[in-house]
Amino acid sequence: MDARVKRTGGLIWPEEGVTSAVPYGVFTEQAVYDEEQARIFRGPTWNFIGLAAELPNAGDFKATFVGDTPVVMTRGDDGAIQAWVNRCAHRGALVCRELRGNNAAGTYTCVYHQWSFDARGDLVGVPFRKGLGGKGGYPADFDMKQHGLRKLRLENYHGAVFVTFDDAMPGFQDYIGADGAVDYHLQRILKDRDLEVLGHTRQYIPSNWKFYAENTKDPYHASLLHLFHMTFGLYRSSQVGGVNITNGWHTVLFSRSGTDSDAAITETRDSKLRTYQADSYTLADPSLLNGRKGEWGDDVTLVIMSLMPNLVIQQIQNTLAVRQIVPKGRDAFELVWTYFGYKTDDEELRNIRLKQANLIGPAGLISMEDGESSVICQQAVIRDQNTWSCIEMGGRDVKDADHLVTETTIRAFWDEYRQLMGY
């Protein structure tokens, strides 16, 4: 055995502190997946569950997940947003079986035995509690206050709602690194904005969720996988941009289109990359790329924020979206896209956002390839669980970069992942 390696949980990992390689078994082993649910999703992390704008009215609710645990986000009569585990305190059935809606009555009733709960998750009704005709019923000391739903600690951070199972966690802003680069970019898009939800899409991807987490932290692939990015210049590795890392594994990737030098364009053309075909493709409707420049008071045209463990927030040109990663097993996850704008948008800007939404999502001119890249990775690592990947572009360390030819942000992910998982 290589002297640098050690065996942990059946997988052979590089020596502690080495994050430029991981064993492929981390994407395929059921034991790893089960451990992630306890140590990551239900551990010391804040998990995104939705936008507050998805629940604009009292009585609105949305069913979602933290890891693979079903949860429900509600807005009560007092306007407060709450979240609770979607599992009846009686026999464990789902309480809420609808994806979203408005519950004007304010109670959520389990279909199995009709135990009912209010928007905060408190038990408010138990059929036959005192029996029927003097028979049956619950014991005299049965206390309804002791049988509410599991409530989750919640923070609404500029309209993005996060929950945690860990009551000892620091606040959300400290979790992502207060006033750091990720916090800056998050506030740039969300702070003092009244969000407007423009729509949703959902896609099931037969791949481990971590392949997608890697993908959204990876500036290296974007020029080499996405023909649309490269050919039409929305993003190229030669543009001005960089990556930042805060509090371990939260990352932001940003770039400015139109900043390629003539020399870089010539070098790209001469390299004959499959993804650069400026001489072959044109757009039948060039207005797709005619956004509104300087909307955020700068010239940044692409921002991909990855807030671990389950949220990606993106600005590509003028289109905005959150992407929630929902694991569905060791080899499947659901990706929930929520497109949004601002209530102050004029009609022209709203139409720009809607048109540019064609760039992203399950069939987006750019994003469709990210789902496929996760799939082909999953298909290829089905065996050889202790073979390692190679994540050395830009070095083997973890640090910010003022360019886009690096995998340092992926190494940051695995560094924090190993610490949380005890590998």
Q: What order do the helices and strands come in, and which of them pair?
A:
Elements (H helix, E strand, L loop, with lengths): L5 E3 L2 E3 L16 H12 L5 E5 L8 E7 L2 E7 L5 E5 L14 E3 L4 E3 L6 E3 L4 E3 L27 E5 L2 E5 L7 H5 L4 H10 L4 E11 L3 H8 L2 H7 L1 H6 L7 E7 L3 E7 L5 H10 L30 E6 L3 E6 L2 E9 L5 E10 L4 H10 L11 H13 L27 H14 L2
Antiparallel strand pairs: 1-2, 3-12, 4-5, 4-7, 5-6, 8-9, 9-10, 11-12, 13-19, 14-15, 15-16, 16-17, 17-18, 18-19
Task: Summarize this entry quickly.
This protein has helices at 30-41, 172-176, 181-190, 209-216, 219-225, 227-232, 262-271, 347-356, 368-380, 408-421, and strands at residues 6-8, 11-13, 47-51, 60-66, 69-75, 81-85, 100-102, 107-109, 116-118, 123-125, 153-157, 160-164, 195-205, 240-246, 250-256, 302-307, 311-316, 319-327, 333-342. By secondary structure, it is of the alpha+beta class. The strands form 5 sheets. A 7-stranded antiparallel β-sheet has the order 13-19-18-17-16-15-14, with helices on both faces. It has a 4-stranded antiparallel β-sheet with strand order 6-5-4-7, with no helix packed on it.
